[in-house]
Design a protein that fits this description.
The complex is a heterodimer of chains A (492) and B (510). Chain A has helices at 5-11, 23-26, 29-36, 69-76, 124-132, 151-160, 171-179, 226-240, 247-276, 278-287, 290-306, 337-358, 441-451, 457-464, and strands spanning 43-50, 59-61, 117-119, 136-143, 187-190, 205-208, 317-323, 360-361, 364-365, 370-376, 395-400, 407-409, 439-440. With 492 residues, chain A is α/β, with parallel strands linked by helices. In chain A, the strands form 3 sheets. In chain A, strands 1, 4, 5, 6, 7, 10, 11, 12 and 13 form a 9-stranded mixed sheet that branches. The chains are: A alpha/beta (492), B mainly alpha (510). Chains A and B meet through helix 6, strand 6, helix 8 and helix 9 of A and helix 10, helix 19, helix 21 and helix 22 of B.
């Protein structure tokens, strides 16, 4: 197992001396390698679209060019009309404002059929970042072998990066476990429980809904007694964390210690951010959505970390989610349910990005330190039902950040009715001879782990992502047997 | 822990049985179990019979808004008498209703009809101890479920497979069997979805309705024609199980359940019997079953033993008999002893268990229409539970709640701490207030004795380690001489001690 920064520093007694590493030490190949294994001064934000977002109506072909994607799309998704109010089709007219174009050297079209693509009109905020900041990577056709139509199983596959959904730890959690220890708080989830990506038991992940409510509820009879209560609680949690205790007590003990410590400082970020960032604070409020409010909590922590507001506020990994994507019915087209979902997310991401862009610390924009990934557990059936869509297979992922080189990556799934399987879903393929070759989710994660989180290629394969074993009589083209951790590029 | 149904309960196993089945173990109930006749305890079997042989209630929660219905149910859980005090009531009934609510998870967030949610809750109560096959058939025709899993949107020409999938994946078979083999295929989902076409429901009275018109050329009417599942697999012949053998149309949805309940796994065991036995076992007995796809051999053994002992399976689907077999099994009592080392297994209390058992043990009653604790934040009980991660009648998804350590994170630990603070801050004269002077002898001056007394009231005297007890004594003595008769000292330190124990790792487990 590779030595981690935490282990190395602990072993050499340098935990508190991180800022004082002299040139001699940095000259050591071991130290340089160890330091490179970390996120450094960067941030990573996961956005989960809960319920299975319809990718077909998220990244939409607007013409055919060298294929038939638009025709196949309009066959599967009927136009809405008086007699068919449940039609989901997005007309080229409705997509005019969100049609993607060339970004830098990326032509911004489907790499396979060369057709033009558009984002759902609800994603005007994301489209604005795509064009003005050139920092949105639209990654098409993301999936995994033998896709599963169960929300729970498929969500687990994505979160664990394991098509068998059998690993207990999440892919981000495995990274954290390799780099942090029990007393650290490297991650904050804006949720009432920890998201599956972060599952592990080596370090503490805070789950909270609002920073302001994160203070510890001491007895109100006599506040002079609060320090005694706090000290007793910390003693109780420390006793439960001892190695002689069963794992569940250690889990509660470690979580309790981190919670009591964090409850001293995290609530302060709420007011501190609001006074320092009043203009942006108001912009989130104006969006009037739960998702924007959640993302603002992330901005508050990032602001605190970037400005070194409190010594124990050091989280650099985050997750937020937006629910309501299980659109079996009343999905809507250019207006309606899915429009509102996309609008809530796209507009909030735009404000969040601009907030981070406007935070300048040490002459550097925080947005240049930011990487956001947006995913959902599956896309939806190609053929619509009366007013919605059933569970499907491969769908798009967005990666956004100041150093992300924007554009379109990965191929649109093959939605020719003859290419669909018996379920009516597009098929996963790693066949390099297939123009519609899928993007395996582990290549997306590996690209981020290697190029953003600084994990060495070999360590990723040994401790976070495992290549598939092709079953007897199986075809290697149907499995992830060779990695490609350069799905999209980051700028230096 | 070796024993059988004739093994007498003792001071370790009696409170364990009560904690896992009856929302906490008050000392007087423990004493009753230890003294069937003076100094002769109940045996495991006698105690299980005592707790299980109640007449299922017909209580239906009421209220115009979902918060009212949630509150109504919680109040009922708090009001229902211990089986040791009442011939007809048992908190075990509510533990089972809670289990089935989690199992057949239906959320008002989508149903948006509190009266249908209340009706489903009553149905679960009526059937919670009865025949599992009847329960599953009834749930398929439950109006809230028909709405929640889109049976009402499942049409011949535009099938919606939601119910057909979850019926197999969650309610009965599971995706994989004990050996990690798939229990069904997409083709089976498609055929079952066809059977569930043509159904909707009435609100008043709540009732499923089958649209049995002869217009089978219409796209939204029942999908007629032959249907079969599990072809050449799971104990069925090459033509599978004929889903129209009891007639086309309305009978098909019951025939589907008949097929599922005959389904065999790759060990030629009844798949439903094993899976439901495992779920109930995990619920009552033990958090240590793990989440590996292939079941560990000790889990398979324990599950097969209770299935065999209760005869659970075709044609006897008595939930009562299955639960009884679990409540006399060694594996249930394995987690009874206090934590003694790293391999000890304890289960994380569900938020409802944490809140209801705490209120019962401390004798604090909720007040006001919104049912709040009269102290601290004055939050309503349903808000406390939501903050702890459990909104009754609004589970996070059709998968219900995630159990064990998934209940615990920084936000939910704070919510539990907040609840503890509110209870111990509710000072006043009425029975809606917290009265530590009725629970602890105020004449005590020895810090160790006071810590033991408080821990004893809350049932964790054996679960706190000596280090933890010393930590609590240090808290008690950091502020001068102990005088529990002194108003200020008592309100500061005795209430504080209760809060600390309620917030301690030991009290989160049972």
């Amino acid at each position: 197992m590779a030595i981690t920064r935490r282990q190395f520093l602990t072993r050499t007694g340098l935990v508190t001396a991180g800022g004082m590493l002299g040139p001699g030490l940095l000259g050591s190949p071991l130290i340089r390698r160890a330091l490179a294994d970390t996120i450094g001064d960067r941030y990573f934000v996961v956005v989960y679209l809960d319920g299975g977002n319809d990718g077909q109506n998220t990244v939409i072909p607007v013409n055919n060019v060298d294929g038939s994607l638009r025709d196949q799309y309009t066959d599967a998704r009927q136009p809405a009309s008086g007699s068919n109010p449940g039609g989901l089709q997005l007309s080229t007219g409705s997509l005019a404002g969100t049609t993607l174009g060339a970004v830098g050297s990326n032509p911004g079209i489907d790499p396979n059929t060369h057709c033009n693509l558009a984002l759902h009109p609800g994603y005007s905020g994301l489209k604005s970042l795509y064009t003005s900041e050139s920092n949105v990577a639209v990654i098409q056709g993301c999936g995994y072998p033998n896709y599963n139509l169960s929300h729970d199983v498929s969500r687990h596959v994505w979160q664990k990066a394991d098509p068998l959904a059998s690993r207990a730890n999440g892919w981000v959690g495995r990274y954290l476990a390799a780099n942090y220890s029990g007393a650290d708080i490297p991650a904050v989830n804006i949720n009432d429980r920890i998201f599956g990506e972060y599952a592990q038991s080596a370090t503490s992940v805070l789950a909270l809904n609002r920073l302001a409510d994160f203070g510890f509820p001491y007895q109100d009879f006599d506040s002079d007694d609060n320090p005694a209560q706090k000290s007793a609680l910390l003693d109780l949690f420390a006793a439960a964390s001892a190695a002689s205790q069963p794992p569940v007590r250690q889990f509660i003990g470690n979580g309790g210690t981190a919670t009591v410590d964090a409850s001293d400082t995290y609530p302060l970020l709420d007011g501190e951010y609001t006074s320092a960032r009043g203009t942006y604070d108001q912009m989130y409020s104006d969006l009037d959505s739960g998702f924007a409010n959640d993302l603002r909590e992330v901005a508050k922590v990032i602001w605190g970390v970037a400005n070194n507001a409190h010594p124990n506020v050091k989280a650099r990994f985050f997750e937020v989610s937006n629910g309501g994507y299980d659109t079996h019915s009343d999905q809507g087209g250019a207006t309606g349910q899915q429009f509102e979902l996309h609008q809530d997310v796209g507009n909030a991401i735009e404000v969040f990005y601009n907030d981070c862009k406007n935070m300048v610390v040490g002459g550097e924009r925080v947005s240049d330190k930011l990487c956001i990934v947006i995913w959902s557990e599956f896309s939806r059936r190609i053929q619509q039902n009366d007013s919605g869509t059933d569970h499907g297979s491969q769908g798009p992922v967005f990666v956004i950040g100041g150093k992300v080189q924007g554009g379109v990556y990965g191929n649109h799934p093959d939605i020719d009715p003859l290419a669909l399987n018996d379920d009516g879903n597009s098929m996963y393929s790693q066949d390099s001879g297939n123009g519609f070759r899928s993007t395996d989710i582990r290549d997306v994660y590996g690209t981020i782990l290697q190029n953003w989180l600084g994990m060495p290629h070999a360590t990723i394969l040994s401790s976070v992502l495992a290549l598939d074993t092709v079953p007897q009589n199986g075809s290697a083209n149907d499995y992830w047997t060779a990695e490609n951790f350069n799905v999209f590029p980051f700028s230096p | 822990m070796m024993g059988d149904e004739n093994t007498p309960l003792d001071s370790t196993t009696a409170p364990h049985l009560l904690r896992r089945t009856c929302f906490g173990a008050p000392a007087e109930d423990v004493q009753k179990l230890l003294n069937k006749t003076p100094n002769t305890p109940y045996t495991r079997g006698q105690a299980a019979d005592l707790l299980l042989n109640f007449k299922p209630g017909t209580f239906k929660p009421t209220g115009r808004y979902i918060e009212n219905v949630q509150t109504s149910w919680i109040k009922y859980m708090l009001k229902i008498k211990s089986r040791l005090k009442s011939a007809t009531q048992s908190p075990l009934q509510e533990k089972l209703v809670l289990f089935w609510h989690d199992h057949f998870a239906t959320s008002d967030a989508k149903v948006e009809n509190p009266s249908l949610m209340a009706f489903q809750n009553q149905t679960l109560r009526k059937l919670c101890m009865g025949d599992l096959k009847v329960l599953v058939k009834t749930i398929g025709k439950d109006p809230a479920m028909i709405e929640f899993l889109d049976t009402v949107r499942n049409f011949k020409d535009q099938p919606n497979e939601n119910y057909a999938r979850e019926l197999q994946e969650l309610f009965t078979l599971g995706v994989f069997d004990a050996n990690g083999q798939a229990n069904y295929e997409q083709a089976d989902i498609v055929q079952i979805a066809r059977c569930f076409s043509g159904w909707s429901y009435n609100n008043r009275p709540p009732k499923a309705v089958f649209h049995d018109y002869d217009h089978d050329f219409e796209g939204d009417f029942p999908d007629r024609g032959p249907k079969a599942v599990y072809l050449g697999a799971h104990g069925f012949g090459v033509t599978g199980y004929d889903l129209t053998q009891n007639g086309e149309g309305a009978p098909e949805i019951d025939t589907v359940i008949d097929a599922i309940f005959q389904h065999q796994d790759s060990d030629s065991k009844n798949t439903v019997a094993r899976r439901i036995a495992r779920r109930l076992f995990e619920y009552f007995a033990d958090g240590g079953f793990g989440d590996a796809i292939v079941w560990p051999s000790d889990v398979v053994q324990a599950v097969d033993e209770v299935v065999a002992a209760s005869g659970f399976g075709e044609p006897n689907w008595s939930i009562h008999d299955l639960v009884r077999a679990i409540l006399v099994h060694d594996r249930f009592y394995d987690t009874a002893p206090p934590v003694s080392g790293p391999s000890s297994k304890k289960s994380v209390k569900w938020p409802v268990d944490y809140a209801v058992s705490t209120l019962r043990l401390l004798g604090v009653t909720l007040t006001g229409q919104s049912a709040y604790i009269a102290g601290g934040s004055y939050d309503a009980i349903v808000d406390h539970l939501a903050n702890m991660g459990q909104e009754l009648l609004e589970p996070p998804s059709v998968f219900g709640w995630d159990w064990e350590t998934s209940w615990i994170n920084s936000a939910t630990l704070l919510a539990r701490a907040n609840f503890a603070r509110d209870i111990t801050s509710s000072r006043g004269n009425g029975k809606t207030h917290f009265h530590p002077e009725k629970l602890v002898n105020l004449g005590l001056t020895d810090p160790a004795a006071i810590v033991d007394a408080v821990a004893g009231v809350l049932g964790v005297q054996d679960d706190l380690s000596s280090t933890e007890k010393q930590d609590l004594q240090n808290y008690l003595t950091d502020d001068g001489p102990i005088d529990l008769h002194d108003y200020d000292f008592r309100n500061r330190k005795l209430n504080g001690l209760f809060a600390l124990v309620l917030q301690s790792p030991a009290f989160q487990l049972h």
